[in-house]
């Protein structure tokens, strides 16, 4: 007879997730909170329906691993380099300033020097899993706040290394100096990341090419999982987080032509295991302890949120973010993070912190994590109040909002066509910025969270404010022949390396647009007819591949790509 205990645990986990998360979804509340509540109810501190076993906790950690892998795929090295100021500048300052201030407050509570160091370092970190999940739910990964949050969280992953290294020193277990230990840890981190980077650059593309030629979905899935888990294994064995290794491997996969296939393989694992991770956090909530220490835990939880959100707000203003963006970032990143559980657990084992204090700190971390979806919603609401009547931005404000954009897309016109382009780019987390000359269009777009600004792009100064010199492509989605021609001429003359794609009603002015410098021409009437013809072919029994080939032939033969771009 097989041991069915783990099977029963899995059934209980899935049942709780399905029932409670569906209820929260119906109530229009973040599913993350649903997972927390589900975990609290079924955990050993709730109705004791399931034990928080090591196997479940270890499995749940892979939710964060797959999440960071997908973030790596979506970012690419070029985008990461463009974010370097926020990663190493903003991120470093956030960790250091937060750690020092929290250390000082811990000392005020008569906690000894060593314990205060651990508390300051651990609570300076935010939750990668929850912040990224909230950003994805809101579709804000590619927004300015999304980019900043990802940059800060990446730096925090690196910051875990010196914090873990310091624990044996604080416990008096190591006779080496902290400088030697830190240098050694940095060297190990460099070796681990270099190993992943070099191996990935040399092997990934030929490996995927070979696997793809076999045409076996099972082998492709196995290969993808091997890459993710292999990179996680390397960094774990070099005392780095598994998620960091997965992130780097994701960056490498992003450079191959198989990135979208890989993303589809990993996505179901990420969603399932990340939900499990949130449930295990909920299972860690000790209801008895929470009730007995309710006032102090709630007070300290709000104190942590206020301190971290204030620090991040001030840093945002220092880095010249707008007030609304600074408030949103502060509230979004104000919680404790999953690494705090590891650090507090190790500190208790090494007697740097008492077991009771470590439990209270873990509870504070859990409470702040649970509040994150609500805090993010509060940030959006405050931002909306600040900007609800603001649709006009100065060139300086626009420059600040686009300062970290690189290889992005500029969308001109935010009507039905421009909005659809924005939705596609948002879905694929491609960075973009949009503009329109109609105030009500801009207001509606901004109310829905789109990065759209009021601006006349027939002016060179407005184009420059939108970071056009660093953009990859400009999409002109307006229905005004005169304005379209002006923008094409202006961009082609001043920014010859930028690809220009143009919406036009038909092919009447196609040759004129081509002569002015447009690379891609998309006539509405032709494309509509082509799509309707494709429907007819499908009903008539033509295969999807045949229809796709025919559509491409019509496009390249009659329109879509101009001679200028194909010659380049």
TrEMBL record:
Q: Which GO terms describe its biological process?
A: potassium ion transport; proton transmembrane transport
Q: Name one Pfam family in it.
A: TrkA_N
Where it sits in the cell: the answer is:
Endomembrane system
Record-linked Gene3D superfamilies: 1.20.1530.20, NAD(P)-binding Rossmann-like Domain (3.40.50.720)
Q: Where are the transmembrane segments?
A: 6-25, 32-49, 55-73, 85-105, 117-136, 148-170, 182-204, 216-234, 272-291, 297-319, 331-348, 360-382
Q: Name one GO molecular function term.
A: antiporter activity
Q: How does it sit in the membrane?
A: Multi-pass membrane protein
For this record, the Gene Ontology CC terms, alphabetical, are: endomembrane system; plasma membrane
Residue stretches making up the RCK N-terminal domain: 406-527
> What are the entry keywords?
Antiport, Ion transport, Membrane, Potassium, Potassium transport, Transmembrane, Transmembrane helix, Transport
Do the record's keywords include 4Fe-4S? no
* UniProt keyword RNA-binding, yes or no: no
Name of the protein in question: Sodium/hydrogen exchanger family protein
């Amino acid at each position: 007879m097989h041991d069915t205990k783990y099977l029963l645990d899995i059934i209980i986990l899935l049942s709780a997730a399905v029932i409670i998360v569906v209820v929260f979804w119906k109530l229009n509340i973040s599913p993350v909170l649903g997972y927390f509540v589900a975990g609290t109810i079924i955990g050993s501190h709730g109705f004791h329906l399931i034990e928080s076993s090591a196997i479940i906790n270890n499995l749940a950690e892979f939710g964060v691993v797959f999440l960071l892998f997908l973030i790596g795929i979506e970012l690419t090295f070029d985008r990461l380099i463009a974010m370097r100021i926020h990663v190493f500048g903003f991120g470093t300052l956030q960790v250091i300033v937060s750690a020092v201030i929290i250390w000082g407050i811990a000392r005020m509570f008569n906690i000894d020097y060593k314990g205060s160091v651990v508390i300051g370092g651990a609570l300076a970190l935010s939750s990668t899993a929850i912040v990224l999940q909230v950003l994805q739910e809101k579709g804000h990964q590619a927004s300015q706040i999304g980019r900043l949050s990802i940059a800060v969280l990446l730096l925090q992953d690196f910051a875990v290394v010196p914090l873990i290294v310091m624990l044996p020193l604080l416990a008096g277990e190591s006779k080496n100096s902290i400088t030697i230990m830190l240098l050694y840890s940095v060297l190990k981190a460099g070796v681990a990341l270099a190993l992943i980077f070099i191996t990935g650059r040399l092997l990934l593309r030929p490996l995927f090419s070979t696997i793809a030629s076999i045409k076996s979905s099972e082998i492709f899935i196995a290969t993808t999982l091997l890459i993710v888990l292999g990179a996680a294994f390397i960094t774990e064995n070099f005392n780095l987080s598994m998620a960091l290794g997965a992130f780097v491997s994701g960056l490498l996969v992003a450079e191959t032509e198989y990135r979208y296939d890989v993303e589809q393989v990993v996505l179901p694992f990420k969603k399932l295991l990340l939900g499990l991770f949130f449930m295990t956090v909920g299972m860690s909530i000790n209801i008895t302890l929470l009730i007995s220490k309710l006032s102090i835990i709630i007070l300290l939880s709000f104190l942590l949120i206020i301190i971290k959100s204030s620090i991040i707000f001030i840093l945002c203003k220092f880095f010249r973010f707008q007030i609304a963006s600074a408030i949103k970032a502060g509230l979004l990143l104000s919680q404790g993070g999953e690494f705090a559980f590891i650090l507090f657990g190790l500190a208790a084992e090494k007697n740097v912190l008492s077991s009771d204090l470590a439990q209270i700190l873990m509870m504070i971390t859990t409470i702040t994590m649970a509040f994150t979806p609500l805090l993010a919603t509060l940030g959006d609401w405050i931002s909306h109040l600040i900007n609800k009547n603001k649709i006009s931005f100065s060139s300086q404000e626009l420059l600040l909002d686009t300062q970290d954009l690189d290889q992005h897309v500029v969308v001109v016109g935010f009507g039905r066509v421009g909005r659809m382009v924005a939705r596609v780019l948002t879905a694929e987390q491609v960075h973009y910025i949009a503009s329109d000359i109609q105030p009500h269009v801009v207001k509606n777009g901004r109310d829905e969270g789109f990065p759209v600004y009021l601006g006349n792009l027939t002016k060179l100064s407005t184009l420059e404010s939108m970071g056009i010199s660093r953009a990859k492509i400009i999409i002109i989605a307006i229905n005004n022949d005169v304005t379209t021609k002006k923008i094409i001429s202006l961009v082609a003359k001043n920014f010859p390396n930028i690809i220009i794609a143009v919406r036009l009603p038909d092919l009447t002015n196609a040759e004129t647009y081509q002569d002015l410098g447009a690379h891609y021409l998309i006539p509405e009437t032709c494309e509509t007819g082509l799509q309707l013809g494709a429907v007819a072919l499908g009903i008539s029994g033509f295969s999807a591949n045949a229809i796709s080939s025919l559509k491409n032939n019509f496009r390249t033969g009659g329109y879509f790509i101009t001679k200028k771009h194909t010659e380049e």
